[in-house]
Protein backbone atom coordinates (compact mmCIF):
# COMPACT_ATOMS: atom_id res chain seq x y z
CA UNK A 1 0.00 0.00 0.00
CA UNK A 2 1.44 3.45 -0.90
CA UNK A 3 2.62 5.34 2.18
CA UNK A 4 0.84 8.54 1.10
CA UNK A 5 -2.41 6.62 0.71
CA UNK A 6 -2.08 5.11 4.19
CA UNK A 7 -1.37 8.52 5.71
CA UNK A 8 -4.24 10.26 3.92
CA UNK A 9 -6.82 7.59 4.72
CA UNK A 10 -5.59 7.53 8.32
CA UNK A 11 -6.79 11.12 8.72
CA UNK A 12 -10.40 10.16 7.92
CA UNK A 13 -12.74 9.75 10.86
CA UNK A 14 -14.33 6.40 11.62
CA UNK A 15 -16.49 4.78 10.36
CA UNK A 16 -15.52 6.40 7.01
CA UNK A 17 -11.90 5.31 7.43
CA UNK A 18 -13.05 1.77 8.26
CA UNK A 19 -15.21 1.68 5.11
CA UNK A 20 -12.33 2.70 2.83
CA UNK A 21 -9.88 0.26 4.40
CA UNK A 22 -12.41 -2.59 4.29
CA UNK A 23 -13.41 -2.02 0.65
CA UNK A 24 -9.78 -1.68 -0.46
CA UNK A 25 -8.62 -4.63 1.68
CA UNK A 26 -6.33 -2.31 3.66
CA UNK A 27 -5.14 -0.48 0.57
CA UNK A 28 -4.30 -3.42 -1.70
CA UNK A 29 -7.20 -2.70 -4.11
CA UNK A 30 -8.68 0.35 -5.83
CA UNK A 31 -5.73 2.68 -5.17
CA UNK A 32 -5.18 3.57 -8.87
CA UNK A 33 -3.94 1.52 -11.81
CA UNK A 34 -1.46 4.19 -12.91
CA UNK A 35 0.80 6.42 -10.81
CA UNK A 36 -1.08 9.49 -12.03
CA UNK A 37 -4.41 7.91 -11.04
CA UNK A 38 -3.06 6.99 -7.60
CA UNK A 39 -1.99 10.60 -6.99
CA UNK A 40 -5.45 11.82 -8.01
CA UNK A 41 -7.11 9.29 -5.66
CA UNK A 42 -5.05 10.60 -2.74
CA UNK A 43 -5.88 14.18 -3.70
CA UNK A 44 -9.63 13.43 -3.71
CA UNK A 45 -9.48 11.69 -0.33
CA UNK A 46 -7.58 14.68 1.06
CA UNK A 47 -10.37 17.01 -0.13
CA UNK A 48 -13.00 14.76 1.45
CA UNK A 49 -11.11 14.75 4.76
CA UNK A 50 -11.04 18.57 4.79
CA UNK A 51 -14.86 18.59 4.55
CA UNK A 52 -15.37 21.63 2.30
CA UNK A 53 -16.49 19.45 -0.59
CA UNK A 54 -19.64 18.51 1.36
CA UNK A 55 -20.72 22.12 1.88
CA UNK A 56 -23.25 23.63 -0.52
CA UNK A 57 -20.65 25.37 -2.66
CA UNK A 58 -18.54 22.22 -2.75
CA UNK A 59 -21.51 20.08 -3.76
CA UNK A 60 -22.34 22.45 -6.63
CA UNK A 61 -18.76 22.18 -7.89
CA UNK A 62 -18.83 18.40 -7.48
CA UNK A 63 -22.13 18.19 -9.38
CA UNK A 64 -20.59 20.03 -12.33
CA UNK A 65 -17.48 17.83 -12.27
CA UNK A 66 -19.60 14.66 -12.30
CA UNK A 67 -21.74 15.59 -15.32
CA UNK A 68 -19.45 13.75 -17.78
CA UNK A 69 -18.03 11.24 -15.29
CA UNK A 70 -18.99 7.82 -14.02
CA UNK A 71 -16.18 7.69 -11.44
CA UNK A 72 -14.02 10.39 -9.85
CA UNK A 73 -10.76 9.07 -11.31
CA UNK A 74 -10.43 7.63 -14.82
CA UNK A 75 -13.15 5.13 -15.80
CA UNK A 76 -13.03 2.61 -12.95
CA UNK A 77 -13.85 2.37 -9.23
CA UNK A 78 -11.16 3.69 -6.87
CA UNK A 79 -10.78 4.39 -3.16
CA UNK A 80 -11.75 8.00 -3.94
CA UNK A 81 -15.25 6.84 -4.94
CA UNK A 82 -15.53 4.70 -1.81
CA UNK A 83 -14.54 7.63 0.39
CA UNK A 84 -16.88 10.01 -1.44
CA UNK A 85 -19.80 7.57 -1.10
CA UNK A 86 -19.16 7.22 2.63
CA UNK A 87 -18.89 10.98 3.09
CA UNK A 88 -22.11 11.63 1.16
CA UNK A 89 -24.08 8.88 2.92
CA UNK A 90 -25.28 10.90 5.95
CA UNK A 91 -26.58 13.63 3.63
CA UNK A 92 -28.40 11.30 1.25
CA UNK A 93 -29.88 9.26 4.10
CA UNK A 94 -31.85 12.40 5.04
CA UNK A 95 -32.78 13.72 1.58
CA UNK A 96 -36.36 13.95 0.40
CA UNK A 97 -37.26 13.28 -3.30
CA UNK A 98 -37.93 16.98 -3.84
CA UNK A 99 -34.26 17.66 -3.03
CA UNK A 100 -32.75 15.21 -5.56
CA UNK A 101 -32.81 17.75 -8.40
CA UNK A 102 -30.61 20.20 -6.47
CA UNK A 103 -27.55 18.14 -7.39
CA UNK A 104 -28.71 15.60 -10.02
CA UNK A 105 -25.24 14.39 -11.05
CA UNK A 106 -24.20 13.81 -7.44
CA UNK A 107 -27.46 11.93 -6.83
CA UNK A 108 -26.90 9.70 -9.86
CA UNK A 109 -23.27 9.12 -8.83
CA UNK A 110 -24.15 8.24 -5.21
CA UNK A 111 -26.79 5.72 -6.27
CA UNK A 112 -24.36 4.08 -8.69
CA UNK A 113 -21.50 3.79 -6.18
CA UNK A 114 -23.64 2.46 -3.33
CA UNK A 115 -24.70 -0.52 -5.50
CA UNK A 116 -21.16 -1.34 -6.66
CA UNK A 117 -20.43 -4.87 -5.30
CA UNK A 118 -17.12 -4.13 -3.43
CA UNK A 119 -18.62 -1.00 -1.88
CA UNK A 120 -21.86 -2.71 -0.91
CA UNK A 121 -20.02 -5.67 0.63
CA UNK A 122 -17.83 -3.40 2.78
CA UNK A 123 -20.74 -1.12 3.71
CA UNK A 124 -22.88 -4.06 4.88
CA UNK A 125 -20.18 -5.09 7.36
CA UNK A 126 -20.44 -1.62 8.94
CA UNK A 127 -24.25 -1.45 9.16
CA UNK A 128 -26.16 0.53 10.14
CA UNK A 129 -23.63 3.31 9.47
CA UNK A 130 -23.80 2.76 5.70
CA UNK A 131 -27.17 1.10 5.22
CA UNK A 132 -28.50 1.19 1.61
CA UNK A 133 -30.32 4.43 0.81
CA UNK A 134 -33.50 3.88 -1.20
CA UNK A 135 -33.81 6.80 -3.61
CA UNK A 136 -37.44 7.13 -4.63
CA UNK A 137 -37.32 9.12 -7.90
CA UNK A 138 -41.08 8.83 -8.44
CA UNK A 139 -41.76 12.03 -6.54
CA UNK A 140 -38.61 13.82 -7.61
CA UNK A 141 -38.99 16.83 -9.93
CA UNK A 142 -37.06 16.76 -13.19
CA UNK A 143 -33.98 18.97 -13.28
CA UNK A 144 -34.64 22.34 -14.89
CA UNK A 145 -33.35 22.49 -18.45
CA UNK A 146 -31.97 25.85 -19.52
CA UNK A 147 -32.43 26.66 -23.17
CA UNK A 148 -29.85 29.00 -24.62
CA UNK A 149 -31.03 31.77 -26.91
CA UNK A 150 -30.27 30.97 -30.55
CA UNK A 151 -27.02 32.49 -31.72
CA UNK A 152 -27.03 34.84 -34.67
CA UNK A 153 -25.95 32.91 -37.71
CA UNK A 154 -22.98 34.21 -39.63
CA UNK A 155 -23.14 34.29 -43.39
CA UNK A 156 -21.29 31.39 -44.91
CA UNK A 157 -20.47 30.43 -48.50
CA UNK A 158 -23.40 28.73 -50.19
CA UNK A 159 -23.26 24.96 -50.11
CA UNK A 160 -24.79 22.66 -52.75
CA UNK A 161 -28.49 22.01 -52.17
CA UNK A 162 -29.21 19.10 -49.84
CA UNK A 163 -30.60 15.92 -51.32
CA UNK A 164 -34.35 15.43 -51.15
CA UNK A 165 -35.42 13.57 -48.03
CA UNK A 166 -32.68 14.95 -45.74
CA UNK A 167 -34.06 14.55 -42.24
CA UNK A 168 -33.78 16.49 -39.03
CA UNK A 169 -31.78 13.60 -37.56
CA UNK A 170 -29.19 14.11 -40.31
CA UNK A 171 -28.92 17.76 -39.35
CA UNK A 172 -28.44 16.85 -35.70
CA UNK A 173 -25.63 14.52 -36.69
CA UNK A 174 -23.76 17.28 -38.58
CA UNK A 175 -20.48 16.82 -36.63
CA UNK A 176 -20.47 13.12 -37.53
CA UNK A 177 -21.37 13.89 -41.15
CA UNK A 178 -18.49 16.38 -41.32
CA UNK A 179 -16.05 13.70 -40.18
CA UNK A 180 -17.55 11.26 -42.70
CA UNK A 181 -17.23 13.86 -45.46
CA UNK A 182 -13.54 14.38 -44.74
CA UNK A 183 -12.97 10.65 -44.71
CA UNK A 184 -14.78 10.25 -48.04
CA UNK A 185 -12.72 13.04 -49.63
CA UNK A 186 -9.54 11.41 -48.38
CA UNK A 187 -10.72 8.04 -49.76
CA UNK A 188 -11.44 9.59 -53.19
CA UNK A 189 -7.97 11.12 -53.28
CA UNK A 190 -6.40 7.80 -52.37
CA UNK A 191 -8.42 5.96 -55.03
CA UNK A 192 -7.47 8.57 -57.66
CA UNK A 193 -3.80 8.24 -56.70
CA UNK A 194 -4.02 4.48 -57.06
CA UNK A 195 -5.75 4.79 -60.45
CA UNK A 196 -3.20 7.30 -61.71
CA UNK A 197 -0.37 5.06 -60.63
CA UNK A 198 -1.93 2.05 -62.38
CA UNK A 199 -2.34 4.09 -65.57
CA UNK A 200 1.30 5.13 -65.63
CA UNK A 201 0.78 8.63 -64.24
CA UNK A 202 2.84 10.08 -61.40
CA UNK A 203 5.64 7.64 -61.97
CA UNK A 204 7.73 6.86 -58.93
CA UNK A 205 4.87 7.48 -56.50
CA UNK A 206 4.01 4.68 -54.09
CA UNK A 207 0.61 3.02 -54.63
CA UNK A 208 -2.01 4.60 -52.38
CA UNK A 209 -3.69 2.44 -49.76
CA UNK A 210 -7.42 2.40 -50.43
CA UNK A 211 -9.77 2.24 -47.44
CA UNK A 212 -12.21 -0.67 -47.16
CA UNK A 213 -15.44 0.13 -48.98
CA UNK A 214 -19.00 -0.84 -48.07
CA UNK A 215 -20.07 -1.55 -51.63
CA UNK A 216 -21.20 -5.01 -52.65
CA UNK A 217 -23.54 -7.35 -50.82
CA UNK A 218 -23.84 -6.70 -47.04
CA UNK A 219 -22.02 -9.30 -44.92
CA UNK A 220 -22.00 -9.74 -41.11
CA UNK A 221 -18.29 -8.97 -40.81
CA UNK A 222 -19.07 -5.33 -41.71
CA UNK A 223 -20.67 -4.97 -38.25
CA UNK A 224 -18.36 -3.92 -35.41
CA UNK A 225 -19.30 -5.99 -32.35
CA UNK A 226 -17.38 -5.60 -29.09
CA UNK A 227 -17.66 -6.64 -25.46
CA UNK A 228 -19.05 -3.88 -23.26
CA UNK A 229 -19.45 -3.42 -19.51
CA UNK A 230 -22.23 -1.28 -18.01
CA UNK A 231 -20.51 0.98 -15.47
CA UNK A 232 -23.49 3.25 -14.88
CA UNK A 233 -27.20 3.25 -15.73
CA UNK A 234 -30.20 5.47 -15.09
CA UNK A 235 -33.67 5.95 -16.50
CA UNK A 236 -33.95 8.50 -19.30
CA UNK A 237 -35.17 11.77 -17.74
CA UNK A 238 -37.65 12.37 -20.58
CA UNK A 239 -38.71 8.86 -21.64
CA UNK A 240 -40.27 6.26 -19.31
CA UNK A 241 -39.26 3.26 -21.46
CA UNK A 242 -35.59 4.13 -22.00
CA UNK A 243 -32.39 3.53 -20.04
CA UNK A 244 -29.31 5.72 -20.42
CA UNK A 245 -26.22 3.59 -19.88
CA UNK A 246 -22.51 4.36 -19.67
CA UNK A 247 -20.82 1.38 -21.33
CA UNK A 248 -17.08 0.75 -21.16
CA UNK A 249 -15.90 -0.81 -24.41
CA UNK A 250 -12.19 -0.44 -23.72
CA UNK A 251 -11.67 2.96 -25.34
CA UNK A 252 -9.22 5.57 -24.02
CA UNK A 253 -11.94 8.19 -24.38
CA UNK A 254 -13.93 6.45 -21.65
CA UNK A 255 -17.41 4.87 -21.61
CA UNK A 256 -19.91 5.51 -24.42
CA UNK A 257 -23.39 6.84 -23.73
CA UNK A 258 -25.96 4.33 -24.97
CA UNK A 259 -29.76 4.60 -24.89
CA UNK A 260 -31.74 1.33 -24.75
CA UNK A 261 -35.50 0.72 -24.77
CA UNK A 262 -35.34 -2.01 -22.12
CA UNK A 263 -37.05 -0.46 -19.08
CA UNK A 264 -40.20 -2.53 -19.51
CA UNK A 265 -38.35 -5.79 -20.15
CA UNK A 266 -35.22 -5.93 -17.96
CA UNK A 267 -35.20 -4.49 -14.40
CA UNK A 268 -32.48 -1.92 -13.76
CA UNK A 269 -30.98 -4.15 -11.04
CA UNK A 270 -30.34 -6.81 -13.69
CA UNK A 271 -28.64 -4.27 -15.96
CA UNK A 272 -26.15 -2.85 -13.48
CA UNK A 273 -22.55 -4.02 -13.85
CA UNK A 274 -23.47 -6.41 -16.69
CA UNK A 275 -21.15 -7.50 -19.49
CA UNK A 276 -22.77 -7.50 -22.92
CA UNK A 277 -22.22 -7.29 -26.66
CA UNK A 278 -22.41 -3.81 -28.19
CA UNK A 279 -22.90 -2.84 -31.83
CA UNK A 280 -20.31 -0.07 -32.11
CA UNK A 281 -20.39 1.25 -35.67
CA UNK A 282 -23.98 2.38 -36.10
CA UNK A 283 -24.43 6.06 -36.83
CA UNK A 284 -25.00 7.98 -33.54
CA UNK A 285 -28.69 8.71 -33.00
CA UNK A 286 -30.58 11.21 -30.87
CA UNK A 287 -33.13 9.49 -28.64
CA UNK A 288 -35.39 11.94 -26.85
CA UNK A 289 -32.61 14.48 -26.41
CA UNK A 290 -29.78 12.06 -25.54
CA UNK A 291 -27.34 10.97 -28.24
CA UNK A 292 -26.66 7.23 -28.29
CA UNK A 293 -23.28 6.02 -29.58
CA UNK A 294 -23.87 2.26 -29.77
CA UNK A 295 -26.58 -0.39 -29.48
CA UNK A 296 -26.95 -3.20 -26.96
CA UNK A 297 -27.37 -6.59 -28.69
CA UNK A 298 -30.37 -8.42 -27.24
CA UNK A 299 -32.27 -11.65 -27.85
CA UNK A 300 -36.05 -11.34 -28.27
CA UNK A 301 -38.22 -14.43 -27.70
CA UNK A 302 -39.71 -16.08 -30.78
CA UNK A 303 -43.09 -15.33 -29.16
CA UNK A 304 -42.26 -11.62 -29.33
CA UNK A 305 -41.23 -9.03 -26.75
CA UNK A 306 -43.88 -10.20 -24.29
CA UNK A 307 -42.12 -13.58 -24.27
CA UNK A 308 -38.97 -11.98 -22.92
CA UNK A 309 -35.87 -10.00 -23.89
CA UNK A 310 -32.36 -10.87 -22.68
CA UNK A 311 -28.92 -9.35 -23.05
CA UNK A 312 -26.56 -11.40 -25.18
CA UNK A 313 -23.75 -12.41 -22.83
CA UNK A 314 -20.09 -12.70 -23.82
CA UNK A 315 -18.14 -15.70 -22.48
CA UNK A 316 -16.51 -15.69 -19.04
CA UNK A 317 -13.20 -13.82 -18.70
CA UNK A 318 -14.21 -11.35 -21.41
CA UNK A 319 -12.88 -7.81 -21.07
CA UNK A 320 -14.34 -4.51 -22.28
CA UNK A 321 -13.28 -3.91 -25.86
CA UNK A 322 -12.72 -7.58 -26.75
CA UNK A 323 -13.60 -8.12 -30.42
CA UNK A 324 -16.73 -10.16 -31.15
CA UNK A 325 -16.73 -11.86 -34.54
CA UNK A 326 -18.56 -14.40 -36.70
CA UNK A 327 -17.00 -17.84 -37.12
CA UNK A 328 -15.45 -18.01 -40.55
CA UNK A 329 -14.60 -14.30 -40.70
CA UNK A 330 -12.11 -14.03 -37.82
CA UNK A 331 -9.69 -11.87 -39.82
CA UNK A 332 -12.24 -9.54 -41.42
CA UNK A 333 -12.19 -5.85 -40.52
CA UNK A 334 -15.56 -4.19 -39.77
CA UNK A 335 -16.51 -0.86 -41.31
CA UNK A 336 -15.69 2.28 -39.35
CA UNK A 337 -19.34 3.31 -39.55
CA UNK A 338 -22.35 1.70 -41.21
CA UNK A 339 -24.01 3.89 -43.82
CA UNK A 340 -27.70 4.03 -42.77
CA UNK A 341 -28.77 4.60 -46.38
CA UNK A 342 -27.39 1.19 -47.38
CA UNK A 343 -29.30 -0.58 -44.54
CA UNK A 344 -26.46 -3.04 -43.96
CA UNK A 345 -27.50 -3.99 -40.43
CA UNK A 346 -31.19 -4.25 -41.40
CA UNK A 347 -30.31 -6.57 -44.31
CA UNK A 348 -28.21 -8.92 -42.15
CA UNK A 349 -30.29 -8.84 -38.96
CA UNK A 350 -32.99 -11.36 -40.01
CA UNK A 351 -30.30 -14.07 -39.98
CA UNK A 352 -29.39 -13.41 -36.33
CA UNK A 353 -30.74 -16.13 -34.02
CA UNK A 354 -30.08 -18.18 -30.90
CA UNK A 355 -29.56 -21.90 -31.55
CA UNK A 356 -30.96 -24.82 -29.53
CA UNK A 357 -27.81 -24.50 -27.42
CA UNK A 358 -28.78 -20.83 -26.73
CA UNK A 359 -25.62 -19.81 -28.59
CA UNK A 360 -25.86 -16.63 -30.66
CA UNK A 361 -25.27 -17.06 -34.39
CA UNK A 362 -25.90 -15.75 -37.88
CA UNK A 363 -27.47 -18.20 -40.33
CA UNK A 364 -26.74 -17.49 -43.99
CA UNK A 365 -30.20 -17.26 -45.62
CA UNK A 366 -28.88 -18.66 -48.93
CA UNK A 367 -26.53 -21.49 -47.89
CA UNK A 368 -28.07 -22.09 -44.41
CA UNK A 369 -24.52 -22.27 -43.01
CA UNK A 370 -24.27 -21.38 -39.31
CA UNK A 371 -21.73 -18.84 -38.09
CA UNK A 372 -21.59 -18.57 -34.29
CA UNK A 373 -20.98 -15.17 -32.71
CA UNK A 374 -17.94 -15.42 -30.45
CA UNK A 375 -14.85 -13.89 -28.92
CA UNK A 376 -11.43 -15.48 -28.55
CA UNK A 377 -12.70 -16.80 -25.18
CA UNK A 378 -15.78 -18.64 -26.52
CA UNK A 379 -19.28 -18.25 -27.95
CA UNK A 380 -21.76 -15.55 -26.87
CA UNK A 381 -25.11 -16.82 -25.53
CA UNK A 382 -28.59 -15.85 -24.40
CA UNK A 383 -29.29 -16.98 -20.81
CA UNK A 384 -32.52 -18.89 -21.56
CA UNK A 385 -33.98 -18.09 -24.99
CA UNK A 386 -33.88 -20.57 -27.89
CA UNK A 387 -34.81 -19.54 -31.43
CA UNK A 388 -34.75 -15.89 -30.44
CA UNK A 389 -34.04 -13.10 -32.91
CA UNK A 390 -31.14 -10.76 -32.18
CA UNK A 391 -31.26 -7.00 -32.52
TrEMBL record:
Segments forming domain GST C-terminal: 1-130
Biased amino acid composition, Basic and acidic residues = 143-161, 190-200
Sorted keywords for this record are: Cytoplasm, Protein biosynthesis, RNA-binding, tRNA-binding
Q: Name one GO biological process term.
A: translation
* Source superkingdom: Eukaryota
Task: List the residue ranges of the region (Disordered).
Answer: 141-218
What name appears for this protein in its UniProt entry? Nucleic acid-binding protein
**Which organism is the protein's source?**
Roridomyces roridus
Amino acid sequence: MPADFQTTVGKLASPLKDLVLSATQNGTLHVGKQEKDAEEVIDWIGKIEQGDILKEAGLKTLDTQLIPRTFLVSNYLTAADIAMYGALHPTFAKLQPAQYSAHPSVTRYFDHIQTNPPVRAAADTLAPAFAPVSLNFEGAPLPERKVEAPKKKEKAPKEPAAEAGTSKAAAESAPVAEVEGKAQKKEKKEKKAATDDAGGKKKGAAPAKVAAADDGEPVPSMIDLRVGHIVDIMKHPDADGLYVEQIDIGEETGPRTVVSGLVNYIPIEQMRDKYLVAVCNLKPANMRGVKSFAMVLCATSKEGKDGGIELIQPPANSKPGDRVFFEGSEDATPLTQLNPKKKIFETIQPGFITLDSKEAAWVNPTTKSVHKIRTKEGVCVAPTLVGASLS
